[in-house]
Amino acid sequence: MKAIKWEVIDMLSDDELVIMAERLVYELKDKLRKRASEGRSQLSKAIEVAKASKSFPVFVNWVRYQMARERTSGGSASEIWRVIGESIYAATAEIERSDPDPQSAITSLVKFLGYLRRAFIGLDYMDRIPAIGGER
C-alpha cells in the first residue's frame, strides 16, 4: 500500500493578509488615487459579495463581471475594477490555495478585502506611517 503524501499548506495569518493588501494598494497607488470615491464603495461591495457567496468561484465571477461592465452614466465603478481586478484575483487565488478548509479560506478572503479597503482609504498615509512588523 502506498503512503499518502500530504502537502503542507500554511494558512495566511492576519499579518500576512494585511501585508498583501498594503502591497497591492502601494503598487497601484498612483492609479488608485484618481478613483478614491468609487474605490471605497466598490471594495465595500466586494466584501458583501464574498460574505454572501461563501464561494471562490462565485466571487471571481463577480470580479470578472465588474471588470467587464460598461461605464455607467454618471459613474466609473468599473474603472476601479480595471485597475485592481487582476491583482484581487491573484490574491484571491493565493488565499484559496493557502487554506484547505473552504469556510476558513472565505473568512480569510473577507478579512483581506477589509484590510484592502482600509489600505485604500489610508493610501495617503502609507508613506508617512510605515508598516510595523512587515515589509511592503
Work out the strand percent.
under 5%
Structural class assignment:
mainly alpha
Helical segment count = 6
User: Tell me, what's the shape?
Assistant: globular
The end-to-end span amounts to 47 Å
The averaged pLDDT comes out at 83
List keywords for this structure.
single chain; 136 residues; mainly alpha; 6 helices
Please specify the SSE layout and strand pairing:
Elements: H1 14-27, H2 29-33, H3 36-53, H4 56-68, H5 77-98, H6 102-121
Write a compact overview of the structure shown.
The chain is built from 6 helices and no strands.
Describe the protein in words:
This protein has 136 residues and is mostly helical. Helices cover 68% and strands 0% of the residues. The chain has 6 helices and no strands. It has helices spanning 14-27, 29-33, 36-53, 56-68, 77-98, 102-121. Helix 3 packs antiparallel against helix 4 and helix 4 (56-68) runs antiparallel to helix 5. It is globular.
